[in-house]
C-alpha cells in the first residue's frame, strides 16, 4: 500500500520563499550515494513544499530560523509521545530517532503480537508530508509488488522497465512487515533501495528518495543473502514480551486509550519530513557551513570500542558455542554518523567521549540478548580506562602527521600547496623551517619517531603511520605510482 501525504494547512510546512536551495550538490562521505545530482521525483498531491527543493538529500532548505536546536527540540517532543502509547518502548523510540536523524534503516524482530506494526505506524504518523510505502511480505511476493509492474510499451521495444510511481522506489518512508517471509531474490532486490537509495535493474537506474525504512519480522533466517540484507540495517531491535504485573497493568491503561487502533496524529504532534531531512543532511556532513566535527582521538576510540566489543562477543560465543559476531567495515564507517547525531541531540557540533555510549544503538540489538549490552558496556569502560589522556594527544598528533605526509606527497606530485594548520606551524618551529615548501617526509618521520605512546593500540597506530610515510617516500624515490599519480 502506498500513501501520499495529505494536504497540509500548517504554515510551518511552507518554507520561506526567500530561501534558496544550497548550491553545490555534495556526496555523502559515508555511503557516497546521497546528494547525487538527479532529477527529483514527480509532484505529490497536496505537498506543501516544492518537490525539487526537499526531496533530494543534500539539497534541503533550512527552516525559516535556520536553527538545528529548534528542530531537535521538535523531534524530542513529537516522538516522546509514542512512549505513552506503547509501554516499555523507550529504548526503541530512542533508536528510531537515531535512524531518522541518520537516514538509516531499522529492523524489528520479535514474537507475534508485540505491537511491531502498531509501533511503525505510530512513528510514521508523527512525520508530516511524507510518501509512505506499506506492505506485507509472503513467500509469493513478487518484485513487481515492490518496484512496480513492467511497462508494456517498453517491453515491446525489448526493454524491461518498471513503472515505479507509487512503489517502494518512490517512497520516502517504508514499512515492510513479515520481512523474512519473502524469498531471497526479492530480498536481494531490496539492497539497492535500502542502502544506496538507487533502484537498478538492467538498464533502468532510478534514484530513490527513501529516508528511512522499517522492517518487521517474527523470526530471523540466516542465508548469504539475508546476511547481506541485515547489514543494510544499521539499527536492530528485539521486543521482549514483559509479563510482569506492573507492566501488564500499564499496557492495559495504554490500550484503553486507543484499543490497538491508530487514529493518526494532529499537525501539532507531527514534524515535517523536510525538517528531519535537513537535520539528517547536517548529520551526514552534507551541509558545508554546519559541519559536526570529531577529533582523531574520538574516532580512534570509536574503533577501539568496536574492536573490543567484537572480541568480547567472540569470547562469549566460544564459551557458549554460538556463532561469532560480525561487524562489517560498512558498519564501522557508519557509526560516525551515529556519533554526529548523538552530538546534535545534545546541542553540540563537536563529538565528545560521552557520545561513544550511544554506539550501542547501532552495534547491539536493542532489547536483544543481555550479553550484547553487557559486552558493549565492558568494552567501552575497558577502552576508556586503558587509553590515557596523554595518548589521546598522541593520537591527534599521529593523525595530523599522516595527513601532513599525504599533503607533502600531493605537493610533490601535483604541485598542491600544503594547508596552513597549527600542526604545520608546529613542525616549522620544531625544525626551524621557513615555509611549508621546506617540509619533507624526513621531517614528518622524525617528528613521529619522537612520539612515545603508552598504550599498545596507540603504538600500533604509530607503526602504521611510519609505514605509510615510508611508503610515500619510497614512491617518490623510486618513481613508481605514476599510473595513479
In percent, how helical is the residue content? 40-55%
Distance between the termini: 52 Å
Average pLDDT reading:
85
Q: What's the CATH C level of the largest domain?
A: Alpha Beta
User: In this structure, how is the largest beta sheet organized?
Assistant: 7 strands, mixed
Report on this model:
By secondary structure, this protein is an alpha/beta fold. The protein folds into three domains: 68-283, 3-Layer(aba) Sandwich (Rossmann fold); 296-386; 389-478, no CATH class. The protein is 48% helix and 8% strand. The chain has 18 helices and eleven strands. It has a seven-stranded mixed beta sheet with strand order 1-4-5-8-2-9-11. The chain has a two-stranded parallel sheet with strand order 3-10. Helix 11 packs across helix 15 (389-414). The radius of gyration is 25 Å and the shape is globular. The protein starts with a strand and ends in a 7-residue tail after the last helix. Mean pLDDT is 85; it is low at 9-55.
Topology:
Blueprint: E1 2-3, H1 51-54, H2 68-85, H3 90-102, E2 106-109, H4 116-125, E3 127-128, E4 132-136, H5 143-147, H6 152-156, E5 173-177, H7 184-196, E6 198-201, E7 204-207, E8 212-217, H8 224-230, E9 235-238, H9 245-258, E10 271-272, H10 273-283, H11 296-320, H12 329-345, H13 360-363, E11 365-366, H14 370-386, H15 389-414, H16 422-431, H17 441-449, H18 456-478
Parallel strand pairs: 2-8, 2-9, 3-10, 4-5, 5-8, 9-11
Antiparallel strand pairs: 1-4, 6-7
Helix pairs in contact: 7-8, 11-14, 11-15, 15-17, 15-18, 17-18
